[in-house]
Structures are given as C-alpha cells and as structure tokens.
Write a structure and sequence with these properties.
Chain lengths: 166, 187
C-alpha cells in the first residue's frame, strides 16, 4: 500500500534566503592585503635543496641566479641539481674535493668560452648551500675547491631573519 | 485649493542588495595569483670574495701578501672559534683572555656565555673596540679578518659570527666592521 503524502509540507513555500557574503568578503580582503604585502615581483631565483636546513642570518642581500653547490651534513654534494658525489669524496685527506673540482672546472671553461665568443661576462660567482650543522671542515673544503676552480666570488645562502641576534 | 499629496510619499523603499559577485570573482582570481608569487621564506646571501688563485697557490689577498713591501703595516687580525670560546689574535699575540684560577690569561678572549653558546654580544663589543683603536693607524688590511674554526664547528655558528664581524650599528647608522672575511684552517 502506498503511503499517503504528508499534508504538513504541502503548502510550505521555499524561503528565499540569500547567502550572506559579507563575512567572506571581509576574509578575502584581509587575505588579499596580506598576500599583497608579501608579494615578490622578483620571484624565486634560488631554490634551496629540500633536505637542507639553511642557517639563519641577519643579512638581507638577495641571491641571484648562479651556479649552486649544495652540501649536506654528511658531505654529499649536489651541483646545479646534479648529484656529484657521496660523502666519501669530502672525507678524503686534502682540501680539494676531486669530483666537484672536475665539474666546476668544466663549468668555468664553458663560462670562459662564452665570455670569449659571445661577450657574456664570467662573474666567477657561486652560491653555496650548506646545512646549518655542516661541519666547518667540510665547509672549508668546499670553499677551497670552489676558489681553486675560479669560482672565487662565493655567496653563502641563508634564511634572512633580521631580528636574529641583534 | 489644497495641494495634491505627493506621490513620492507612497513610494516604498526598494530592498536592493549590493551585487558583490564580480568582486568575489576578482578575489578568487587574485588570491591564487598572489599566493603563487608570495615569498614566505626570505633567502639572503653572505658574500665571501676570495682573491683569484695565484700561480703559487695559497690564500690571502694578492695585494696584502707582499712581505717585501715594508711600508705596508699589516694587522692580520684573526678569529679562532673553539668549543671553549673565541680567540682574537694577531701575529703579535693572542688578545688577553679571561684569567683562570691561577691568574693566567690563557683562556679564550671571548669565553662561552652562561647558556654555553658563543658570546656574540661580547665579541661585537670587542671587535668594535679593536676597530676604533686601529682607526687612522694606517693598517692596510684594516677591513680584513681571518676566520678559523674547529673542524666540527657547525655552519650556523660560523654564519652567526660572520653576521657580527661584517657590520655593526651605531645609532641609526650601519657601519662596516671587518667586511673582508677570509677563511683559514688549523693545520
């Protein structure tokens, strides 16, 4: 047997209730202002390696796009997103890291050729990304190797935190 | 003759909501656009400009490594970071440290602070003092300092010390302290 339709809802009209957008507009305005404040027209020129925790610094000088060497705490080295060597090379006695030196010299030669043929100046600049716990011994070896391969204008990448220490 | 009643009085106010949909559409477009271009972590760089490699190798500024030029007075200030504190030295000796129980000033120039960390505030005061003392005395390498650290010193400590060494604030003015930092190694 079919059920009898309900009488109570028969004459009920759907109420015309518009969605109140005021609260959402307020929220959107605040988010918009916040994002406009933190907007960078320059974009991200240097992407820090995922597994590195960069040291913090009070410096505010912005990085530019350059050859980038990333060194992990264990001593693994990545040059321009290309894995160069594991920790074994940096643990060798002596200041020079041979695989890194070889690759950097290749890049320096390419840059010098471009300078000679096309007039693109070779800035000798390199960005060094090191983990905040990178031992000084490894760090100094990376500096030495970069300087030896004619990348003597070094930039140590850090997270800018102007309120730190001062 | 009486005036005819105004028809405006009979007009009912129209309940017209402001149409904010176009603004909402604009917001929906703008917010993802700005989110993509926002920078939540600001990166910075610390410049370390080494001199070009010499044929004979070795570090040091090519203009400052000429021992035969007697007219150049050199300070050769160096900082050594150890696990007990920071030593400030020059070829004439190590700057007097805190006296130990026997009264010998053999300890580091800047010992660790109460928290067991490097005392960057005391280091800054000491370096500013040195900078003022050497001002006008004609040292050719008055802007240069050599930074050395123990092999296990973490990079964060080195960066913290470089932050102190490079510049300092005097009132509203930012002045150079020792902007040319060279890295040394304990052999």
């Amino acid at each position: 047997m079919a059920f009898k339709p309900s009488k109570s809802k028969k004459n009920v009209k759907a109420a015309d209730a518009p969605l109140n957008m005021n609260a959402m507009m307020d929220m959107m305005t605040i988010i918009l202002l916040f994002l406009l404040k933190s907007y960078s027209t320059q974009g991200v020129l240097v992407t820090p390696s995922k597994d590195l925790v960069l040291p913090e610094s009070v410096r505010t000088e912005r990085p530019t796009k350059q050859v980038t060497v990333a060194v992990s705490t264990s001593g693994a080295i990545v040059l321009n997103d290309e894995h160069i060597t594991g920790p074994e090379a940096i643990m060798q006695p002596g200041n020079l890291i041979a695989p890194l030196s070889f690759k950097l010299r290749e890049l320096a030669n390419v840059a010098k050729d471009e300078e000679a043929n096309y007039g693109i100046p070779f800035s000798h600049e390199i960005i060094i990304q090191g983990d905040q716990f990178l031992p000084y011994e490894y760090f100094s070896k990376v500096l030495y190797t970069c300087g030896d391969a004619e990348f003597y204008n070094m930039r140590i990448l850090s997270v800018s935190n102007a309120s730190r220490n001062q | 003759m009486a005036y005819k009643p105004s028809l405006r009085r009979a007009m009912k106010p129209v309940d017209a909501d402001l149409d904010i949909r176009p603004v909402m559409n604009l917001m929906v477009v703008l917010i993802p656009l700005l989110l993509a271009g926002s920078e939540f972590v600001k990166l910075a760089v610390i410049e370390v400009n080494l001199p070009p490699r010499q044929a004979s190798g070795g570090g040091g500024d090519k203009n400052e490594d000429k021992p035969d030029e007697k007219k150049d007075k050199k300070l050769q200030l160096s900082l050594a970071v150890t696990k007990t504190g920071i030593y400030i030295a020059s070829p004439s000796g190590i700057l007097g440290g805190t006296p130990d129980a026997e009264g010998d000033e053999t300890g580091p120039t800047i010992p660790l602070n109460a928290e067991g960390k490097q005392d960057l505030v005391a280091l800054k005061i000491q370096l500013i003092d040195i900078k003022k003392k050497i001002a006008g005395k004609g040292f050719k390498d008055k802007k240069t300092i050599t930074l050395t650290a123990e092999r296990i010193t973490p990079l964060q400590t080195v960066i913290d010390i470089m932050d102190v060494v490079l510049k300092y604030e005097e009132g509203d003015e930012i002045k150079e302290l020792f902007p040319k930092v060279q890295f040394g190694k304990v052999m």
